[in-house]
Amino acid sequence: MxxxxxxxxxxxxxxxxxxxxxxxxxxxxxxxxxxxxxVVKVRRSRSPPERNSRAGENRLRPAGxxxxxxxxDSKFNHNDYIIGFVDRFEGxxxxxxxxxxxxxxxxxxxxxxxxxxxxxxxGEIVWDRRRRIDAIFSSGNSAFRELAFLQ
Length: 151
Fold this sequence. Notes:
It comes from Penicillium argentinense. By secondary structure, the chain is mostly beta strands. 10% of the residues lie in helices and 23% in strands. A hairpin with a 4-residue loop joins β5 and β6.
């Protein structure tokens, strides 16, 4: 009979098999125990996900990545950038990056999924969700614009 010790993920359970009178049966002997694994491992393919090559899709970097890059990279002056976002009650609004609140506990916090665009004070759009423009990391449709010379 199987012991009553705790089962660990790598252990197996022993199940007794009934005794039968048929000599060719697998359960012919009463001492036969069958090992049954308690965990079944499923192997998943590690191939990359399929992409529609006709769509020419390139993932757009999230607004948070650009905000962090502009804030922490000395090449950019964070006072020169404006964030356009959607407010739930007032519609489309703009705020300068130096007034942007990242801390979710702040009363004036704006979730990053509400960001519509980021632009420079001179009017140049550096990130736009709808048009999939990213002039800082060259993700989204901006990557194709930069590689157009290869065609």
